[in-house]
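Title: Comparing notes on inverse folding

I've been comparing how different people in this forum approach sequence design from structure. To keep things fair, I'm posting one structure and asking everyone to reply with a full sequence. Here's the target:
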């Protein structure tokens, strides 16, 4: 929040760090300790930070930035007469507002902003023209294919780690604070709900502190039917609550402006996330804590490969964390503006929750949980078979939930959040089919004064 000036014989470097420390969810250390670890630039030291975080620190002209998937962080390097000016923030709009405040708003363009890629320490040197390229040091490099092919063992390990992180999170929030689970009845949100219910019971706390919120648009929603079946089958029906919204209240243009991105699937998902967050906020003005299952699909490589012409099952299974990070920071296709994979796409979950004043938590996106998933021998278990890959997540999570909670969790056919919340005909009528419409809206948004 503070502007800091540092001088040498020839230039003054100004750093405007707009990252609010309270936006971090640190599960094993203080913010000051996490800062010092990022400041050191030591990859192993940064890897030991457990939680959802985005941290910017500096030492003289050297600035280091590091983040996990769960919190975005952007930067913009502007020019002032007395030297470079670095602005660091969560959103493009925050950067633009700060530059306007400094009287150099004419330098802003969204394509000149840079997203810090998750799982790297990014080092910048503020030495003036010409600005050197950042240096990327990976701090999270999970070992692949290191577990046996026993699904019971894998599932237990995976859900045990999820439960461990959720338990730490419970320790970090007020003991009486209500918790909302963004719930579709799918594998990932279902696992989060059942794990939290189990943890609260084990602590001797009332599980009614939990609510499983399911979005339903115009009274027609496959997710609502599925969610009801799920909670009834698992004996937690008393935790379930639908958030009813009218279709005319959905606004994909607002979603584009909120996530500052144009990828159709992310905009569609964010539109639904905006609706459910708005509905919860209207019904519960003081609610703060939300938790979700975002990241579970990426961990288990559970996306239809056939829908993306750039992917093959070999590229998905041979590339470490492809769905979390995209092609990687040194690849031609890596976007400096948007990073890649869920490092980019998690904005669909984070931005709507933040807009409506919630503190969101995505435990599947934590490095410690991703690490377990990356150790799964996917190639051995699937033999490059698409259908086998797509069924694997349900089998692993179901076995893990049974081992950790004792509950036999139902598994339903995979469905994207945006497709489950809205009738398909209404969906097709509401959302443009082509990416250019979303891109045009983003350009127009930043063209407005």
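Reply #1:
Here's my take.
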């Amino acid at each position: 929040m503070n502007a800091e000036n540092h001088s040498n014989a020839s230039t003054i470097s100004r750093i405007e760090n707009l990252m609010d420390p309270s936006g971090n969810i640190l599960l094993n250390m203080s913010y000051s300790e996490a800062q010092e670890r990022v400041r050191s630039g030591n990859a192993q030291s940064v890897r030991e930070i457990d939680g959802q975080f985005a941290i910017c620190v500096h030492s003289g002209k050297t600035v280091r930035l590091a983040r996990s998937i769960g919190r975005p962080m952007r930067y913009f390097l502007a020019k002032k007469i007395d030297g470079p000016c670095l602005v660091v923030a969560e959103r493009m709009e925050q950067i633009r507002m700060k530059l306007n405040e400094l009287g150099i708003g004419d330098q802003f363009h969204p394509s000149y902003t840079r997203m810090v890629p998750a799982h790297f320490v990014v080092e910048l040197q503020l030495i003036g023209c010409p600005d050197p390229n950042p240096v990327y040091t990976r701090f999270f490099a999970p070992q692949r294919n290191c577990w046996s092919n026993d699904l019971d063992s894998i599932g237990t390990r995976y859900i045990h780690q999820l439960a461990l992180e959720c338990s730490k999170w419970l320790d970090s929030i007020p003991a009486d604070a209500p918790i909302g689970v963004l719930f579709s009845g799918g594998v990932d949100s279902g696992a989060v709900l059942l794990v939290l219910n189990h943890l609260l019971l084990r602590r001797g706390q009332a599980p009614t502190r939990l609510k499983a919120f399911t979005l339903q648009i115009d009274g027609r929603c496959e997710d609502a039917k599925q969610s009801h079946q799920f909670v009834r089958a698992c004996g937690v029906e008393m935790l379930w609550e639908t958030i009813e919204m009218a279709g005319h209240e959905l606004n994909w243009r607002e979603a584009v402006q909120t996530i500052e991105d144009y990828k159709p699937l992310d905009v569609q998902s964010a539109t639904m996330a905006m609706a459910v967050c708005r509905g919860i906020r209207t019904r519960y003005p003081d609610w703060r804590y939300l938790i979700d299952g975002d990241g579970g699909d990426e961990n288990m490589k559970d996306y239809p490969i056939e829908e993306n012409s750039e992917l093959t099952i070999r590229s998905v299974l041979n590339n470490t964390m492809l769905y979390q990070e995209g092609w990687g920071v040194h690849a031609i296709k890596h976007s400096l503006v948007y990073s890649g994979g869920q490092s980019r796409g998690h904005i669909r979950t984070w931005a709507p929750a933040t807009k409506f004043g919630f503190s969101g938590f995505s435990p599947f996106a934590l490095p410690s949980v991703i690490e377990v998933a990356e150790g799964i021998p996917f190639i051995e278990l699937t033999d490059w078979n698409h259908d086998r890959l797509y069924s694997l997540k349900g089998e692993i999570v179901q076995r893990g939930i049974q081992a950790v909670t004792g509950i036999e969790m139902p598994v339903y056919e995979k469905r994207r959040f945006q497709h489950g919340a809205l009738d398909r005909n209404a969906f097709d009528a509401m959302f443009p089919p082509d990416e250019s419409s979303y891109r045009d809206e983003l350009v127009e948004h930043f063209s407005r004064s």
